[in-house]
TrEMBL record:
<feature type="domain" description="Luciferase-like">
    <location>
        <begin position="30"/>
        <end position="333"/>
    </location>
</feature>
<keyword id="KW-0503">Monooxygenase</keyword>
<dbReference type="InterPro" id="IPR024014">
    <property type="entry name" value="DMSO2_SphG"/>
</dbReference>
<dbReference type="Pfam" id="PF00296">
    <property type="entry name" value="Bac_luciferase"/>
</dbReference>
<keyword id="KW-0560">Oxidoreductase</keyword>
<keyword id="KW-0288">FMN</keyword>
<dbReference type="InterPro" id="IPR050172">
    <property type="entry name" value="SsuD_RutA_monooxygenase"/>
</dbReference>
<dbReference type="InterPro" id="IPR011251">
    <property type="entry name" value="Luciferase-like_dom"/>
</dbReference>
<protein>
    <submittedName>
        <fullName>Dimethylsulfone monooxygenase SfnG</fullName>
        <ecNumber>1.14.14.35</ecNumber>
    </submittedName>
</protein>
<dbReference type="InterPro" id="IPR036661">
    <property type="entry name" value="Luciferase-like_sf"/>
</dbReference>
<dbReference type="GO" id="GO:0004497">
    <property type="term" value="F:monooxygenase activity"/>
</dbReference>
<keyword id="KW-0285">Flavoprotein</keyword>
Protein backbone atom coordinates (compact mmCIF):
# COMPACT_ATOMS: atom_id res chain seq x y z
CA UNK A 1 0.00 0.00 0.00
CA UNK A 2 1.31 3.48 -0.81
CA UNK A 3 -0.27 6.56 0.63
CA UNK A 4 0.56 9.26 -1.86
CA UNK A 5 3.24 11.27 -0.13
CA UNK A 6 5.86 10.48 -2.73
CA UNK A 7 6.94 14.06 -3.31
CA UNK A 8 8.51 14.25 0.18
CA UNK A 9 10.13 10.81 0.13
CA UNK A 10 13.50 11.11 1.85
CA UNK A 11 16.11 10.46 -0.85
CA UNK A 12 18.39 8.28 1.28
CA UNK A 13 17.75 4.56 1.62
CA UNK A 14 15.62 3.84 4.65
CA UNK A 15 17.80 2.72 7.57
CA UNK A 16 17.22 -0.29 9.80
CA UNK A 17 17.73 -0.53 13.55
CA UNK A 18 16.87 -3.35 15.91
CA UNK A 19 15.96 -3.30 19.60
CA UNK A 20 18.73 -4.94 21.63
CA UNK A 21 17.12 -7.51 23.92
CA UNK A 22 19.25 -6.51 26.92
CA UNK A 23 16.13 -6.88 29.09
CA UNK A 24 14.74 -10.36 29.72
CA UNK A 25 11.43 -11.52 28.24
CA UNK A 26 12.02 -10.16 24.73
CA UNK A 27 9.96 -7.32 23.27
CA UNK A 28 6.49 -8.75 23.92
CA UNK A 29 4.65 -9.17 27.23
CA UNK A 30 3.70 -12.74 26.37
CA UNK A 31 4.46 -16.22 27.62
CA UNK A 32 4.91 -17.52 24.07
CA UNK A 33 8.20 -19.46 23.93
CA UNK A 34 10.98 -17.21 22.60
CA UNK A 35 14.47 -18.27 21.55
CA UNK A 36 15.67 -14.72 22.28
CA UNK A 37 18.01 -14.30 25.23
CA UNK A 38 19.05 -11.19 27.12
CA UNK A 39 22.55 -12.49 27.85
CA UNK A 40 25.80 -11.05 26.55
CA UNK A 41 26.90 -13.94 24.29
CA UNK A 42 23.52 -14.08 22.54
CA UNK A 43 23.56 -10.33 22.04
CA UNK A 44 27.11 -10.15 20.74
CA UNK A 45 26.28 -12.78 18.11
CA UNK A 46 23.02 -10.99 17.30
CA UNK A 47 24.88 -7.71 16.71
CA UNK A 48 27.24 -9.48 14.29
CA UNK A 49 24.31 -11.07 12.45
CA UNK A 50 22.58 -7.69 12.27
CA UNK A 51 25.53 -5.87 10.74
CA UNK A 52 26.03 -8.69 8.23
CA UNK A 53 22.32 -8.49 7.40
CA UNK A 54 22.24 -4.79 6.51
CA UNK A 55 21.22 -3.19 9.81
CA UNK A 56 22.80 0.20 10.55
CA UNK A 57 21.90 0.64 14.22
CA UNK A 58 21.15 -1.31 17.40
CA UNK A 59 19.15 0.36 20.18
CA UNK A 60 19.76 -0.71 23.78
CA UNK A 61 17.17 -0.17 26.50
CA UNK A 62 17.53 1.40 29.92
CA UNK A 63 15.61 -0.08 32.82
CA UNK A 64 16.51 0.01 36.48
CA UNK A 65 14.02 -2.45 37.93
CA UNK A 66 11.87 -5.41 36.93
CA UNK A 67 8.28 -5.07 35.83
CA UNK A 68 5.88 -6.76 33.41
CA UNK A 69 8.06 -9.82 32.96
CA UNK A 70 11.33 -7.92 32.40
CA UNK A 71 13.02 -9.51 35.38
CA UNK A 72 16.66 -8.92 34.40
CA UNK A 73 18.11 -5.82 32.76
CA UNK A 74 21.68 -5.21 31.62
CA UNK A 75 22.73 -1.56 31.86
CA UNK A 76 22.54 0.23 28.55
CA UNK A 77 25.85 2.13 28.19
CA UNK A 78 28.06 -0.73 29.38
CA UNK A 79 26.13 -3.19 27.22
CA UNK A 80 26.38 -0.92 24.18
CA UNK A 81 30.13 -0.85 24.54
CA UNK A 82 30.27 -4.66 24.60
CA UNK A 83 28.28 -4.81 21.35
CA UNK A 84 30.55 -2.21 19.73
CA UNK A 85 33.59 -4.24 20.72
CA UNK A 86 32.09 -7.29 18.99
CA UNK A 87 31.26 -5.51 15.72
CA UNK A 88 32.96 -3.24 13.21
CA UNK A 89 30.32 -1.20 11.37
CA UNK A 90 27.15 -1.24 13.45
CA UNK A 91 26.27 1.94 15.36
CA UNK A 92 24.93 1.28 18.83
CA UNK A 93 22.52 3.70 20.47
CA UNK A 94 22.81 3.81 24.26
CA UNK A 95 19.75 4.95 26.21
CA UNK A 96 20.25 7.62 28.87
CA UNK A 97 17.63 8.60 31.42
CA UNK A 98 18.00 12.16 32.78
CA UNK A 99 17.60 12.00 36.54
CA UNK A 100 19.69 8.91 37.20
CA UNK A 101 22.18 10.25 34.63
CA UNK A 102 23.81 13.64 34.87
CA UNK A 103 24.91 15.16 31.54
CA UNK A 104 28.48 15.67 32.79
CA UNK A 105 29.03 11.96 33.41
CA UNK A 106 27.10 10.97 30.29
CA UNK A 107 29.07 13.35 28.06
CA UNK A 108 32.40 12.10 29.41
CA UNK A 109 31.47 8.40 29.27
CA UNK A 110 30.06 8.60 25.73
CA UNK A 111 33.01 10.70 24.50
CA UNK A 112 35.38 7.98 25.68
CA UNK A 113 33.33 5.21 24.05
CA UNK A 114 33.21 7.29 20.87
CA UNK A 115 37.03 7.54 20.91
CA UNK A 116 37.35 3.80 21.53
CA UNK A 117 35.02 2.87 18.67
CA UNK A 118 35.72 5.41 15.91
CA UNK A 119 32.51 7.30 16.55
CA UNK A 120 30.07 4.36 16.43
CA UNK A 121 28.19 5.26 19.62
CA UNK A 122 24.95 7.27 19.60
CA UNK A 123 22.54 8.14 22.43
CA UNK A 124 18.79 7.91 22.98
CA UNK A 125 17.54 10.41 25.55
CA UNK A 126 14.49 8.88 27.21
CA UNK A 127 12.23 10.84 29.49
CA UNK A 128 10.76 8.09 31.66
CA UNK A 129 7.43 6.24 31.78
CA UNK A 130 7.91 3.98 34.81
CA UNK A 131 7.11 5.92 37.98
CA UNK A 132 7.58 2.76 40.09
CA UNK A 133 11.16 2.61 38.90
CA UNK A 134 11.80 6.21 39.92
CA UNK A 135 10.26 5.55 43.34
CA UNK A 136 12.36 2.42 43.80
CA UNK A 137 15.63 4.25 43.18
CA UNK A 138 14.70 7.41 45.08
CA UNK A 139 14.50 9.69 42.05
CA UNK A 140 11.87 12.47 42.01
CA UNK A 141 9.10 11.72 39.50
CA UNK A 142 8.53 15.00 37.66
CA UNK A 143 5.37 15.87 35.75
CA UNK A 144 5.31 14.77 32.12
CA UNK A 145 6.23 18.11 30.57
CA UNK A 146 8.79 18.86 33.27
CA UNK A 147 10.51 15.60 32.38
CA UNK A 148 10.84 16.87 28.82
CA UNK A 149 12.08 20.28 29.98
CA UNK A 150 14.82 18.45 31.84
CA UNK A 151 15.56 16.20 28.84
CA UNK A 152 15.91 19.22 26.58
CA UNK A 153 18.40 20.82 28.95
CA UNK A 154 20.18 17.46 29.09
CA UNK A 155 20.50 17.42 25.29
CA UNK A 156 21.62 21.06 25.14
CA UNK A 157 24.23 20.25 27.79
CA UNK A 158 25.52 17.18 25.93
CA UNK A 159 25.78 19.06 22.66
CA UNK A 160 27.44 22.06 24.28
CA UNK A 161 30.00 19.93 26.12
CA UNK A 162 30.75 17.92 22.97
CA UNK A 163 31.15 20.88 20.62
CA UNK A 164 32.43 23.85 22.65
CA UNK A 165 35.35 24.75 24.79
CA UNK A 166 34.56 26.92 27.82
CA UNK A 167 30.95 25.77 27.68
CA UNK A 168 28.67 27.96 29.77
CA UNK A 169 25.00 27.15 30.29
CA UNK A 170 22.39 28.38 32.74
CA UNK A 171 19.43 26.00 32.92
CA UNK A 172 16.95 25.19 35.67
CA UNK A 173 18.28 21.64 35.95
CA UNK A 174 21.90 21.86 34.80
CA UNK A 175 24.55 24.59 34.93
CA UNK A 176 28.01 24.87 33.40
CA UNK A 177 30.66 27.55 33.70
CA UNK A 178 33.65 27.63 31.33
CA UNK A 179 33.65 23.83 31.13
CA UNK A 180 35.97 22.18 28.61
CA UNK A 181 35.81 18.43 27.96
CA UNK A 182 38.92 16.77 26.54
CA UNK A 183 38.99 14.61 24.58
CA UNK A 184 35.77 15.41 22.81
CA UNK A 185 34.00 12.55 20.98
CA UNK A 186 35.49 11.22 17.76
CA UNK A 187 34.10 12.29 14.42
CA UNK A 188 31.19 11.92 13.65
CA UNK A 189 29.69 13.37 16.81
CA UNK A 190 27.35 10.93 18.60
CA UNK A 191 23.88 11.32 17.10
CA UNK A 192 21.18 12.28 19.59
CA UNK A 193 17.97 10.26 19.41
CA UNK A 194 14.93 10.71 21.64
CA UNK A 195 11.80 8.64 22.34
CA UNK A 196 8.21 9.85 22.80
CA UNK A 197 5.36 11.31 20.72
CA UNK A 198 3.51 13.72 23.00
CA UNK A 199 3.38 17.45 22.22
CA UNK A 200 6.34 18.02 24.54
CA UNK A 201 8.31 15.22 22.87
CA UNK A 202 7.68 16.60 19.38
CA UNK A 203 8.59 20.13 20.36
CA UNK A 204 11.82 18.91 21.91
CA UNK A 205 12.60 16.98 18.70
CA UNK A 206 11.91 20.04 16.59
CA UNK A 207 14.27 22.15 18.69
CA UNK A 208 17.21 19.96 19.65
CA UNK A 209 17.20 16.29 18.59
CA UNK A 210 18.88 14.69 15.59
CA UNK A 211 16.33 11.86 15.59
CA UNK A 212 12.76 11.39 16.83
CA UNK A 213 11.67 7.85 17.69
CA UNK A 214 7.98 7.21 17.84
CA UNK A 215 5.84 4.21 18.72
CA UNK A 216 4.40 1.93 16.06
CA UNK A 217 1.65 3.47 13.93
CA UNK A 218 0.06 3.63 10.48
CA UNK A 219 1.72 5.61 7.68
CA UNK A 220 -1.09 8.20 7.91
CA UNK A 221 -0.44 8.78 11.61
CA UNK A 222 3.31 8.87 11.09
CA UNK A 223 2.82 11.45 8.36
CA UNK A 224 0.82 13.67 10.70
CA UNK A 225 3.65 13.58 13.26
CA UNK A 226 6.30 14.24 10.62
CA UNK A 227 4.41 17.26 9.25
CA UNK A 228 3.88 18.61 12.73
CA UNK A 229 7.55 18.25 13.72
CA UNK A 230 8.90 19.55 10.42
CA UNK A 231 6.69 22.65 10.59
CA UNK A 232 8.00 23.47 14.07
CA UNK A 233 11.56 22.55 13.18
CA UNK A 234 11.52 24.94 10.23
CA UNK A 235 11.39 27.77 12.77
CA UNK A 236 14.61 26.63 14.44
CA UNK A 237 16.56 25.34 11.44
CA UNK A 238 16.79 21.85 12.94
CA UNK A 239 15.83 18.89 10.73
CA UNK A 240 15.18 15.89 12.94
CA UNK A 241 14.99 12.53 11.21
CA UNK A 242 12.23 10.11 12.07
CA UNK A 243 12.45 6.52 13.36
CA UNK A 244 9.32 4.36 13.62
CA UNK A 245 8.94 1.30 15.81
CA UNK A 246 7.58 -1.99 14.42
CA UNK A 247 7.35 -5.60 15.51
CA UNK A 248 8.22 -7.71 12.48
CA UNK A 249 6.70 -11.12 11.82
CA UNK A 250 8.01 -12.11 8.38
CA UNK A 251 7.08 -15.58 7.18
CA UNK A 252 6.87 -17.30 3.80
CA UNK A 253 3.06 -16.97 3.86
CA UNK A 254 0.78 -14.34 5.35
CA UNK A 255 -1.23 -17.06 7.14
CA UNK A 256 1.87 -18.22 9.02
CA UNK A 257 2.74 -14.66 10.03
CA UNK A 258 -0.81 -13.89 11.23
CA UNK A 259 -0.87 -17.18 13.18
CA UNK A 260 2.27 -16.14 15.05
CA UNK A 261 0.71 -12.78 15.96
CA UNK A 262 -2.39 -14.60 17.19
CA UNK A 263 -0.26 -16.93 19.31
CA UNK A 264 1.69 -14.03 20.85
CA UNK A 265 -1.57 -12.31 21.83
CA UNK A 266 -3.25 -15.49 23.08
CA UNK A 267 -0.25 -16.12 25.33
CA UNK A 268 -0.16 -12.55 26.63
CA UNK A 269 0.09 -12.27 30.37
CA UNK A 270 -3.12 -10.28 31.06
CA UNK A 271 -2.11 -8.98 34.49
CA UNK A 272 1.28 -7.82 33.26
CA UNK A 273 -0.19 -6.20 30.12
CA UNK A 274 -2.85 -4.39 32.16
CA UNK A 275 -0.31 -3.20 34.73
CA UNK A 276 1.99 -1.99 31.95
CA UNK A 277 -0.96 -0.23 30.28
CA UNK A 278 -1.90 1.43 33.55
CA UNK A 279 1.66 2.61 34.14
CA UNK A 280 2.27 4.04 30.66
CA UNK A 281 -1.12 5.72 30.34
CA UNK A 282 -0.62 7.22 33.77
CA UNK A 283 2.86 8.43 32.81
CA UNK A 284 1.32 10.46 29.99
CA UNK A 285 -1.62 11.81 32.04
CA UNK A 286 0.13 15.04 32.80
CA UNK A 287 0.77 15.57 29.10
CA UNK A 288 -1.83 18.30 28.56
CA UNK A 289 -2.93 17.38 25.03
CA UNK A 290 -3.21 13.62 25.64
CA UNK A 291 -1.26 12.58 22.54
CA UNK A 292 1.46 10.64 24.31
CA UNK A 293 2.88 7.38 23.08
CA UNK A 294 0.28 5.05 24.52
CA UNK A 295 -2.72 7.39 24.74
CA UNK A 296 -4.75 5.31 22.27
CA UNK A 297 -3.26 1.83 22.78
CA UNK A 298 -5.61 -1.16 23.11
CA UNK A 299 -4.88 -4.31 25.14
CA UNK A 300 -3.56 -6.08 22.04
CA UNK A 301 -1.34 -3.11 21.13
CA UNK A 302 0.16 -3.10 24.63
CA UNK A 303 1.35 -6.71 24.30
CA UNK A 304 4.24 -5.15 22.35
CA UNK A 305 5.97 -2.52 24.49
CA UNK A 306 5.93 0.27 21.88
CA UNK A 307 2.78 -0.45 19.83
CA UNK A 308 4.83 -2.34 17.27
CA UNK A 309 1.92 -4.42 15.90
CA UNK A 310 0.19 -1.23 14.73
CA UNK A 311 2.86 -0.68 12.05
CA UNK A 312 1.75 -4.00 10.51
CA UNK A 313 5.08 -5.34 9.30
CA UNK A 314 3.42 -8.74 9.56
CA UNK A 315 3.17 -10.92 6.46
CA UNK A 316 5.36 -12.05 3.57
CA UNK A 317 8.65 -10.35 2.66
CA UNK A 318 6.94 -8.70 -0.33
CA UNK A 319 4.11 -7.30 1.81
CA UNK A 320 6.53 -6.06 4.44
CA UNK A 321 8.82 -4.41 1.88
CA UNK A 322 5.83 -2.55 0.36
CA UNK A 323 4.73 -1.36 3.80
CA UNK A 324 8.24 -0.16 4.64
CA UNK A 325 8.17 1.93 1.47
CA UNK A 326 4.82 3.35 2.59
CA UNK A 327 6.44 4.35 5.89
CA UNK A 328 9.26 5.98 3.96
CA UNK A 329 6.72 7.83 1.83
CA UNK A 330 5.16 9.04 5.05
CA UNK A 331 8.49 10.58 6.07
CA UNK A 332 10.23 7.82 8.04
CA UNK A 333 14.02 7.71 7.71
CA UNK A 334 14.49 4.61 9.83
CA UNK A 335 12.56 1.50 10.87
CA UNK A 336 13.28 0.35 14.42
CA UNK A 337 12.48 -3.35 14.55
CA UNK A 338 11.76 -6.01 17.15
CA UNK A 339 11.36 -9.74 16.53
CA UNK A 340 10.22 -12.85 18.41
CA UNK A 341 13.33 -14.98 17.83
CA UNK A 342 15.86 -12.24 17.18
CA UNK A 343 18.89 -14.04 15.74
CA UNK A 344 17.00 -16.16 13.20
CA UNK A 345 14.54 -13.42 12.28
CA UNK A 346 17.10 -10.64 11.87
CA UNK A 347 18.96 -12.95 9.45
CA UNK A 348 15.70 -13.78 7.61
CA UNK A 349 14.87 -10.07 7.38
CA UNK A 350 18.33 -9.36 5.96
CA UNK A 351 18.03 -12.11 3.35
CA UNK A 352 14.41 -11.69 2.31
CA UNK A 353 13.14 -8.21 3.18
CA UNK A 354 16.00 -5.70 2.92
CA UNK A 355 16.89 -6.67 -0.69
CA UNK A 356 13.22 -6.21 -1.66
CA UNK A 357 13.16 -2.78 -0.02
CA UNK A 358 16.33 -1.79 -1.87
CA UNK A 359 14.87 -3.05 -5.17
CA UNK A 360 11.70 -1.01 -4.63
CA UNK A 361 13.76 2.06 -3.78
CA UNK A 362 15.92 1.60 -6.89
CA UNK A 363 12.86 1.11 -9.11
CA UNK A 364 11.35 4.26 -7.72
CA UNK A 365 14.54 6.22 -8.30
CA UNK A 366 14.84 5.09 -11.91
CA UNK A 367 11.16 5.99 -12.52
CA UNK A 368 11.85 9.44 -11.05
CA UNK A 369 14.91 9.88 -13.30
CA UNK A 370 12.95 8.81 -16.38
CA UNK A 371 10.12 11.25 -15.65
C1 LIG B 1 11.89 3.91 20.52
C2 LIG B 1 11.70 4.25 21.95
C3 LIG B 1 12.64 3.77 22.88
C4 LIG B 1 12.49 4.04 24.22
N1 LIG B 1 13.39 3.50 25.11
C5 LIG B 1 13.21 3.68 26.42
C6 LIG B 1 14.10 3.07 27.37
O1 LIG B 1 15.02 2.35 27.00
N2 LIG B 1 13.87 3.30 28.69
C7 LIG B 1 12.85 4.10 29.12
O2 LIG B 1 12.70 4.25 30.33
N3 LIG B 1 12.01 4.69 28.25
C8 LIG B 1 12.16 4.51 26.92
N4 LIG B 1 11.30 5.11 26.04
C9 LIG B 1 10.22 5.99 26.58
C10 LIG B 1 10.32 7.46 26.16
O3 LIG B 1 11.50 8.08 26.49
C11 LIG B 1 9.19 8.30 26.75
O4 LIG B 1 9.35 8.43 28.12
C12 LIG B 1 7.87 7.67 26.50
O5 LIG B 1 7.79 7.26 25.17
C13 LIG B 1 6.70 8.65 26.82
O6 LIG B 1 6.43 9.37 25.71
P1 LIG B 1 5.33 10.50 25.57
O7 LIG B 1 6.06 11.79 25.63
O8 LIG B 1 4.78 10.26 24.21
O9 LIG B 1 4.35 10.36 26.67
C14 LIG B 1 11.41 4.85 24.68
C15 LIG B 1 10.48 5.33 23.74
C16 LIG B 1 10.61 5.04 22.40
C17 LIG B 1 9.57 5.55 21.42
Amino acid sequence: MTVGFVQDTPPDPIRFAYWVPNVSGGLVISKIPQRTSWDADYNRRLAQIAEESGFDYALTQIRFTAGYGAEYQHESVAFSHALLAATSRLKVIAALLPGPWHPTLAAKQIATISQLTNGRIAVNIVSGWFSGEFRAIGEPWLDHDERYRRSEEFIRSLRGIWTQDNFTFRGDFYRYTDYTLKPKPADPLPEIFQGGSSRAARDMAARVSDWYFTNGNTPENIRAQVDDIRAKAAETGNRPRIGVNAFVIARDTEEEARAVLQEIIENADPDAVKAFGHEVKNAGKASPEGEGNWAKSSFNDLVQYNDGFKTNLIGTPDQIAERILALKDAGADLALLAFLHFQEEVAYFGTHVIPRVRALEAARESRAEAA
